[in-house]
Amino acid sequence: MNILVLNAGSSSLKYSLFQGADSHLVAHGVIDQLSDRPEHDHAWALLEAEATLVRQGWITELGDCEAVGHRVVHGGERFQAPVRITADVLEAIRALCELAPLHNPANLAPIEHLWQRHPELTQVAVFDTAFHQSLPAYAYHYAIPQHFYDQHHIRRYGFHGTSHEYIAQRAAARMQVPRNQTHLISMHLGNGASVCAIEYGHSIDTSMGFTPLEGLIMGTRSGDLDPAIVLYLINHLGYDPKDLDTLLNKQSGLKGLVRHNDMRQLLDLAEAGDTQAHLAIEMFIYRLVKTVGGYVAIMDNLEALVFTGGIGEHAAEIRARVIARFPAHFGFKLDADANRQVNGETCISAPDSRCQIWVIPTDEEWQIAQHTLALSPPETEKIT
């Protein structure tokens, strides 16, 4: 069985091909810079991906795949789980472009291309927001007039759900407890960053909100910001909506503070004595610790902290400084040697730590493949 997973961004298309009932990865690639030339759109990128997979001998055409799984950023309130794509689902995803104008249109492009070219092919949408649909109402509502929610669906949705779901599953397996009994805090730290509080295997709060802009300081995103700053930028500095979107999503965060959004560069600059880089790192850690500490306060139990994402998986110094930043009464203790020698899924907590501390590499593509496999028809069934 061939399962193709597609992750379409505004300027790139990532593809991964999984084979067999165990869904092992056999091919992976990225086609980027799609916006450089008008003819280099997602349809072109999909053909390039197909040509590569054919050249490598995995398929003769995309129609050879039993199913294709797509990362879709926004599922709104309608989609609380992955779904097989039908005409009705396709229309609903189009309607949700209003909530995610930077993401859903790009996610839709390869879906629509395959819909036209291979209408018989099973396609599955896996939503970044779905895992967070278990948030209680008091966690997802904003304190603004109710009609904004009733009429315009303005609420906290949360993102990185596929990653946090994967972490919940792997942490449960490593701690040898059922997923529905897991109590952990997942920290997805990369260019985009979010924290998720997970109780009994379900998301009960997460740091991203109506958009992925809310929450932690990120590579180029500001994270939490006093809304009055936006008003000030409009009223006193002449910013318009497009300028604000660019400023807060692409020119802020670590990049806005230090001109670099790569944590490795910031660590090197700070070690060389760059005070601004040092400040940016301290801000990043402080916001993260404050968020995690707040989640500890609302949880009935805590069995594990998990680091994942590019920074979470590879930056031992950041992990050590995050844990050290918690006051002693939290009881989080790191095994320094284990932290320095991380190799794959690694427990890095000291034996007397209040809870286990793990580094678990995330694998959103594999998670999407599993959902796609679960929703695919038997090989003897043909969709019409």
Dominant shape: globular
N-to-C series of helices and strands: EEEHEEHHEHHHEEEHHHHHEHHHEEH
Main sheet record = 6 strands, mixed
Helix content: 40-55%
- Percent strand equals 15-25%
Low-confidence stretches: 380-384
Mean pLDDT rating: 95
Q: What's the total number of strands?
A: 12
SS content category: alpha/beta
Rg, Cα atoms, Å: 21 Å
Strand order of the largest sheet: 3-2-1-4-6-5
Number of helices: 15
> Cα distance, first to last residue?
19 Å
Description:
- It is a single chain.
- With 384 residues, the chain is of the alpha/beta class.
- The model is unreliable at 380-384 (pLDDT under 50).
- A hairpin with an 8-residue loop joins strand 11 (346-347) and strand 12.
- The protein has helices at 42-55, 87-95, 104-117, 137-140, 146-152, 161-175, 227-237, 241-250, 253-258, 263-271, 275-298, 309-314, 316-325, 336-340, 364-375; strands at 2-8, 12-19, 24-32, 67-72, 83-84, 122-127, 183-189, 193-199, 202-206, 304-308, 346-347, 356-359.
- It is globular.
- The relative contact order is 0.12.
- A six-stranded mixed sheet has the order 3-2-1-4-6-5, sandwiched between helices.
- Helix 10 packs across helix 11 (275-298) and helix 11 crosses helix 13.
